[in-house]
């Protein structure tokens, strides 16, 4: 440490230092000191910290609630008490130098849009900036973030790449995953090679960027729902998917009121000896997330007596969770087993078995919407049914959502395609902005076996 400019003493005093009376910008202690100062001010004004998230401050008064979330010095205030919101803003203005930016539109790189259907979150500007900085704006786009059947590993003769650039790209893509659950699995794979990336690993990262180019405005739509307090969790696992150490990757999607709120794809710390064990450890991870969400909802005043439903498509894993009998093949996972069984006995969690085709975590793209410019929310919508992909482009979000409801209620692929074509003709006549692309595969060939290619 050195004395600041202008305070230099004679050479005889060169060993002297200054003792700081308060935190200065740039010191490692400064964020903690600032947050302590802010917390003290909020508590003095009658707010309390949430037990589930210490950056969330709440105040309940006469059946109404006001909430403030803070990230360093950026804050968002919401609630159903307008008078309390104004009082809080006045208090913060007196305590700190701050600026009211009005209704929430942009926060930490996340764009917020509103419509009659709900609230739409995306990171379109962030994604386009990333593509521009990496020179990928004109790249050839792909339909998936990970090549099918890709197995990355560290090779002894692999071609080295710029380690710093690799880490920066993965780090920036990880931040983009805050509104892009479809990137979670791909990023969980490439992030395992941050210490020693090779050419094949860099190519996998560049493929994610090419996938990002196909729809930089994708995001998540939070819609209104009468059953807004229901919590559903879907878990899944990729058994022994890592070639280097044969560890499994588990993941979960959590829904509150039918809206996707949290997701995760994480490599397990131990080697699973069976697919049931890998799925079982994934269930334990999902239960932990469900309990945290339950605590957060309680802090927000949303107390539901309904048990949390946790869905798994592995019947053996569900049987292990419900059956307290210890077996030689499962006793090494007894901590997870007793933890899950305890929550099942307390009726906090239910664990119904679902079919693999109903497992929503298999296709995170179905929860994403594509954004547009100006005041319009969505211009595109993608549906994937097996190997048949349908993409529509238009201005009307209502028509797209109506199409989604019609399509999801049909069983036949033929009916789906015909419904899309009928909708496209009607919509194009009104907007003149629709185009559809059909990928011809074995299913399409059966549907249109007597139709020339150009007609399809």
TrEMBL record:
Annotated Reverse transcriptase Ty1/copia-type domain ranges read 3-147
Instruction: Please give the organism.
Output: Escallonia herrerae
InterPro entries assigned: DNA/RNA_pol_sf, RVT_2
**What name goes with this protein?**
Reverse transcriptase Ty1/copia-type domain-containing protein
One Pfam family matching this protein: RVT_2
Lineage start: Eukaryota, Viridiplantae, Streptophyta, Embryophyta, Tracheophyta
């Amino acid at each position: 440490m050195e004395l600041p400019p202008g305070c230099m003493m004679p050479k005889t005093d060169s060993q002297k230092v200054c003792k700081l009376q308060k935190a200065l910008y740039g010191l490692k202690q400064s964020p903690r000191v600032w947050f302590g100062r802010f917390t003290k001010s909020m508590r003095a004004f009658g707010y309390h910290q949430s037990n589930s998230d210490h950056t969330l401050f709440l105040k309940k008064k006469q059946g109404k609630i006001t909430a403030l979330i803070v990230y360093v010095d950026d804050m968002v205030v919401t609630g159903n008490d307008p008078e309390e919101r104004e009082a809080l803003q006045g208090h913060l203005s007196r305590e700190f130098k701050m600026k009211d930016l009005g209704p929430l539109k942009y926060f930490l790189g996340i764009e917020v849009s509103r419509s009659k259907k709900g609230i739409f979150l995306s990171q379109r500007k962030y994604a386009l900036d990333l593509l521009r900085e990496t020179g990928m704006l004109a790249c050839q786009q792909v339909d998936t973030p990970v090549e099918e059947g890709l197995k990355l590993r560290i090779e002894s003769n692999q071609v080295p790449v710029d380690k710093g650039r690799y880490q920066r790209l993965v780090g920036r893509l990880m931040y983009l995953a805050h509104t892009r659950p479809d990137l979670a699995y791909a990023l969980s794979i490439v992030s395992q090679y941050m210490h020693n990336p090779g050419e094949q690993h860099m190519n996998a990262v560049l493929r994610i960027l090419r996938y990002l180019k196909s729809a930089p405005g994708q995001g998540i739509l939070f819609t209104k729902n009468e059953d807004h307090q229901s919590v559903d969790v879907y878990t899944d696992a990729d058994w022994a998917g890592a070639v280097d150490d044969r560890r499994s990757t588990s993941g979960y999607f959590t829904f509150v009121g039918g809206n996707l709120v949290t997701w995760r794809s994480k490599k397990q710390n131990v080697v699973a000896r069976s697919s049931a064990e890998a799925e079982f450890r994934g269930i334990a991870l999902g239960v932990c997330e469900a309990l945290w969400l339950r605590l957060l909802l309680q802090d927000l005043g949303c107390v539901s007596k309904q048990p949390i439903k946790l869905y798994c498509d592995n019947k053996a894993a569900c049987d292990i969770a419900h059956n307290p009998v210890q077996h030689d093949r499962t006793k090494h996972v007894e901590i997870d087993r007793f933890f899950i069984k305890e929550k099942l006995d307390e009726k906090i969690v239910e664990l119904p078995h679902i079919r693999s085709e109903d497992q929503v975590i298999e296709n995170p793209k179905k929860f994403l919407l594509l954004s547009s410019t100006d005041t319009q929310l969505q211009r595109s919508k993608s549906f994937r049914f097996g190997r048949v992909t349908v993409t529509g482009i238009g201005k009307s979000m209502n028509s797209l959502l109506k199409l989604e409801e019609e399509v999801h209620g049909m069983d036949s692929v033929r009916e789906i395609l015909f419904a899309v074509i009928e909708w496209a003709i009607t919509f194009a006549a009104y907007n003149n902005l629709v185009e559809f692309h059909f990928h011809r595969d074995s299913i399409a060939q059966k549907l249109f076996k007597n139709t020339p290619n150009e007609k399809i």
